Amino acid sequence: MTMIQLAIVTVTVIAFARVAWVTAGLVRTWLRGGALVAARWGWIEALNIPEPLVLAGVTYTLAVQGLPPGPSSAPATAAAIFGAALARGGLGLSLWAFLSLPSVGGGHYVLQGQAIVEQGVYGWLRHPLYVAAFLIWLAVALAYGSVLALVVFAVYVVPIYLLYIREEERLMIERYGDTYRDYRERVGGLFPRRRG
Asked: Which domain holds residue 173?
């Protein structure tokens, strides 16, 4: 297997893994039912729910075209390798988020007795799972050299997640007030920032 093929396979596996864990997270939230003390399920959340399925569809469409048969150009190989590094970063960030907040699921909600989590990755980023989604989408676009993946990322994924983040922040402020505002001042949203 060539370097570009290995990079593309890596990105493809991680993209489908993300689809599986986001779907499992949504099911996990749905099964919690009465344990949710605050939840938000509006049109923004509804527009966001299909995102992992869109990722699956785009990745599948690109994957069925097959791997490059032989040696590829140096720029295509470099882009695929960089894409694989981004995908691994997205996977690592997701795993760190789950280790930092084992109760994480899908959607906007607060569990009974849940405090604001500031340990682990949540001490550096308020939205690590959304950053991971961005990294994986970019990885797919780069590894496959796909304009389709880049357009879907720019036109659908980024705008819907920015709206999704806004709604999540509103829910957290409604639930935690100044405690969350203080957390938001100290910890970056999509870019790492940690103030003492």
From this structure: 3-186
Q: What is the pLDDT of residues 30-72, one digit of tens each?
A: 887 777 777 778 899 889 999 999 999 999 999 998 876 666 7
Round the CA-based radius of gyration of the chain to a whole number and report it: 18
> Are 149 and 58 within 8 A, CB to CB?
yes
As given in the structure block, the two tokens for residue 14 are: 């991680």
- Count of C-beta atoms within a 10 Å radius of residue 77: 17
| Continuous segment of H or E residues that includes residue 91 | helix 74-100
**Can you give the pLDDT at residue 68?**
67
Distances (CA, A) of 116 to 124, 126, 183, 186: 13, 10, 8, 13
How many helices (DSSP H) and strands (DSSP E) are in the chain? Answer: 8, 2
Residue 177 in any domain: the answer is yes
The answer to whether residue 18 sits within a structural domain is: yes
Give a yes or no: residue 196 inside a domain: no
The mean pLDDT of the chain is: 91
Structure tokens at 142: 């780069």
- Tell me which amino acid residue 76 is: A
Torsion of CA 80, 82, 83, 87, to 10 degrees: 140
Cα distances (Å, whole numbers) of residue 173 to 24, 36, 45, 169, 176: 26, 16, 17, 6, 5
* Residue 26 included in any domain: yes
The CATH number of whichever domain residue 75 belongs to comes to: 1.20.120.1630
Instruction: Count the domains in the chain.
Output: 1
